[in-house]
Amino acid sequence: MDRLRLRWVGFTLALLITGLAPLSGSGAQQNRYMVLIDPAHGGDEAGVLADKLREKDLTLNLALLIRQEAQKGANFDIQLTRSADRTMTMSERSKAIGALQPDCLLSLHVNAGFGKKAAGYEVYFPGFRQTIAGGGDSIVILKDMEKNSYLNDSVRLAQQIQASLETVFPRKGRGLRDAPSPLLDVLTIPGLIVEVGFATCTEDRKKLTDEETQKAIARALVRGLRTYFQKVP
Length: 233
What we know:
The chain is an alpha/beta fold. It has helices spanning about 1-30, 55-70, 90-100, 140-165, 200-210, 210-230, and strands at about 35-40, 50, 55, 75-80, 105-110, 120-125, 175-180, 190-200.
């Protein structure tokens, strides 16, 4: 009888150990995040054009470099709204966000204008809205508070991206800016628009078309993302 009981205990322990093993894996997966990179323009929309620089080509190349850099060991996966030179409407980009449900979004752009002396990078996050539609309705207020939590996370993400890009463009940061955006305003996740430089500035354009600088920008953005996720509550 004792021998049968021992066998039963051993069998039960084996089942418990086998059953617990997958749990450690699922717990590890909870520490992985999905980042959606949105290369601006594409296809029929070239974006900013200056000398040999085309915004749609640069943003796509940076997105591919970011994905490649992230594969080296960061704790997040990179998805792209487009991985080839094709036209994408704003609606299609928004649908991609809804379908993938990423943990955050970076939309990559190249700046232009403000005169040939305008240079440096800018980071935009969704604009804060103080008024609450629907008055004092509790459901509306709760939804607004939830929205504001995403906005606050966007600001924290913007701070990390700004600090990382400073290593590539020392003293070239033009500050963090909140502004309305058709893409960012509908988000329920942290999201940013990153203007990586001015195509209309000779110095910026020279750097942006340099392969090593593009890799440095990709490394900086991945580093900023990694730091942001390490500090996620």
